[in-house]
Write a structure and sequence with these properties.
The structure is a homodimer. Chain A is mainly α. Chain A contains 7 helices and 2 strands, in the order H-H-H-E-E-H-H-H-H. The first copy, chain A, has 2 domains: 80 residues, Arc Repressor Mutant, subunit A (Orthogonal Bundle); 90 residues. The radius of gyration of chain A is 23 Å and the shape is elongated.
DNA sequence: CCTTTTGCTATCTGGCAGATACATCTATCA
DNA sequence: TGATAGATGTATCTGCCAGATAGCAAAAGG
């Protein structure tokens, strides 16, 4: 899965749990895989069409406009295992928050503080979401076999969120330090304007 | 910066530290911003052309083939501040490792273990890279003012890597548990084949 | 009966990564 | 000198993908 067919794997995986319409697929992916995966309609519908064409997925219900449910086929399950077995290539990183902080001197400590505080509250929200998922009972007997694996991803989300919180507090302290250093030089309201090199 | 112009911000930011050629830009972004950002040539060159067209960047040296160095202009610095000030929209998550673990029952505990071990070693490498960056002396006097901000991103990388390590160890233990549970039911070499729902 | 809302399907634009191609400039050995 | 290789440097093309947009149908509600 060299950075391609990722959508197909996610769609097949979701359908391996339960047959769904394209719309429900999107809801399910957003709600259940939301903390580590996302898909857009622009990806899901072409993927479903392609999967149907290749016999990996079967369309139930009206094939004309209206709700039609898709179910995974035996060939689809085999294909899913194939896709999951391919090495997990980490996507090239792109963290807009860290980009801003890296060039933070252009913004000044106060604006950076606001950015970090924002990230901090997002991490707290994620931690709360993970706790809510943990509290959900494993009522569906079909999902009990999957649950231990799901909990692995929940745990990953928790570790990441807690790390983000710890980092944010550390960063806030460091930014306060910077701010008071600046304050010794010039009035605190003025934004630092670094020199050019033309 | 609603998920657009991200490349321009990164390019302007890099040029705000030092004038460079497109090639050096790519090297610098890979080496210095590598743990939280990436750019490809296919983005950098069009971005430079567009920035030059808008007068935010200035081409020094031969404008025909060969090395031409780009420097940020005053307007470019202003534009950089503008871009950095826009809210940091987190990109939609896409974690191929967690996708595989979520549907891990299709793979079996052993394959999942291998995936987690791989991620663990990548986290260890990142931790070592961050330690190396910290050891680098702040010899360049022009960069001393930027350094506290850079260290914020290094710290973020360290926290994330350590969290990944802790999670990996926890996950490995959980997967071992799963493996021994399975072993009670069926021979350990057979892959679990979950039921379909056709 | 009309209007709004929600469920659902689909398309289009543009950002972006990765592969590829090619040209120039060293450097090292023949 | 010449040749080969490797680093430097510029550029384009393909295809994945997110997000915006738009068109319907059925239900709800007035």
């Amino acid at each position: 899965m060299a950075r391609t067919d990722q959508t197909q794997a996610a769609v097949l995986g979701a359908l391996s749990v339960l047959p769904m319409t394209g719309y429900a697929l999107r809801q399910e992916i957003r709600d259940t895989l939301g903390h580590f995966w996302s898909e857009s309609f622009g990806q899901i519908y072409p993927a479903l069409a392609e999967l149907e064409r290749r016999g990996l997925v079967e369309r139930r219900g009206g094939d004309r406009t209206g709700s039609s449910t898709f179910a995974i086929t035996a060939a689809g399950t085999a294909r899913l295992r194939e896709l999951l077995a391919e090495p997990a290539q980490p996507a090239p990183p792109r963290n807009p928050l860290l980009l801003r902080l890296f060039f933070g001197r252009q913004l000044g400590p106060d604006a950076c503080r606001a950015l970090v505080l924002d990230a901090r509250s997002r991490a707290e929200e994620q931690l709360a979401r993970m706790a809510a998922v943990r509290r959900e009972p494993a009522d569906d007997p079909a999902s009990t076999a999957d649950r231990p694996y799901w909990l692995l991803t929940v745990s990953a989300g928790e570790h990441a969120a807690r790390a983000q919180l710890a980092w944010a507090d550390e960063a806030l302290a460091a930014l306060d330090e910077l701010r008071s250093d600046d304050g010794a030089d010039r009035p605190p309201s003025s934004r630092p304007t670094p020199e050019e090199h033309p």
